[in-house]
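Note on ligand handling. Small-molecule inputs were canonicalized before submission; formal charges were left as drawn, and no protonation-state enumeration was performed. Where a ligand contained multiple stereocentres, the stereochemistry in the source SMILES was retained. For flavin mononucleotide, this procedure yielded the string shown in the input block below.
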Amino acid sequence: MAQDQSMHLAADISFLHTDYLWRMPGSWVGYPYYSSSEFYEDIARIADRGVMDMLFFGDTGGTPEDYGGSYHAVVEHGAKWPRHDMSPMIPLMARAAQGVGFAWTLSTTYHHPFHCARLFNALDHVTKGRVAWNAVTSAYKNEAANYGYDEMMEHDERYVRADEFCNVACKLWDSVEPDAVVLDREKGVFMDPAKVHRIDHRGKYFNVRGPLPALPSPQRRPVIIQAGLSPPGLKLCAEFADLQFSTRRTLPSMQAHRAALDAALAQARRTPRDIGILWSIRVEVAESDAEYAERERRYLEAVPPDAGLIEMSFQFNVDFSKARPDMRVADFAEEVASQKGNLGSFDEIVKTVDPKLTLREFSKRYLLDRVLAATGTPKKIADKLEELHYGTGANGGFILARGFSASDNLKNFVDFVVPELQRRGLSKKKYTGRTLRENLNG
Ligand SMILES: Cc1cc2nc3c(=O)[nH]c(=O)nc-3n(C[C@H](O)[C@H](O)[C@H](O)COP(=O)(O)O)c2cc1C
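Structure output:
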């Protein structure tokens, strides 16, 4: 984020077609959401209008079988399922909107760094330098089975692989120097071989000779995002990332998280301003608290009673359908830890949830309360974002997560909240750079 204190804005658009939103007014039902790009092109244009930095597609390649031991519930309800490969949508969206950037997710556990480096180099070219890579270690059982693992790799070992993966990918992106292209017609020299380098990497998981057979892309490396919350996750992030995603649920826990990341950055000989955090937040604009309450009621009515348990089961690789009525969230801490999954996020829930609530009570609002929320009038939402932004050192911004209506949620944010943020001098009125990295830095 360099010294830039402005509030950066992004939106997670991974689940616009699932998560019960298809039951809400204004949703995509009847619209060919994947076989046509218009819906996503519109979203890119809306984000551009709000001078948002980035639209994000998460990815996991699985069909969760944790709840009740089968995929029945996730398929029946469309709970984070299906998941298409959204990378082809990015170039189409980039043509429709010239300012906003695009983040896509690729697993360091199941893919190869050569493929990753080549793919993101290509995406960076076609988006004219507006792409980011969300480097994830993948914490889901059914996904592991799809990539040939009977057992999911251990949590910390996934980070060992991720560290080598990122190292190789970065070496490949750096293997062709930016001024290597000569294109001298008279001498017949296309590129200068002295500026193109083998990497000769031999490691525990990968042997890669290099160089990357590609022209250097506008950003050279994509913007790298890492969302690890555990100690090895923070370490990986501190070493390679430009940006972090985080789902802390209260201001004190956000502040503690920022401090933990800063400590990891110091260990990696980098500074706090080298990595901004985009905090996940659910934003819902309403004319009054009463109108908001009505929307919330309508949404909760559209989700099945076990929706929270279904989602938690997927998230933490544990069958929460077995929860007895008296069980608390903390009662599952050991079982979650033994599953090698999203340890950091569950720990955050245990620390911040009201200990009096039973798991079943908590799960009823899980779809709403898993991340922070800012709801109500644009002024009230801007007040909350401003408080959280300055309370955490004005070093990053927010990524909108969830919301009660597919594209209307983003539209309302851009049309009603962004002007208020801009009026207060919090967010940008125009794009300042050509690339995503430049926009994030200034
Ligand atoms: C906003 C956000 C988006 C994420 N997106 C993905 C994703 O698309 N795919 C995935 O496998 N994990 C995703 N994760 C999970 C993280 O990569 C990471 O596994 C998780 O935060 C747990 O961290 P830990 O492994 O250090 O405990 C996301 C996390 C956050 C906070």
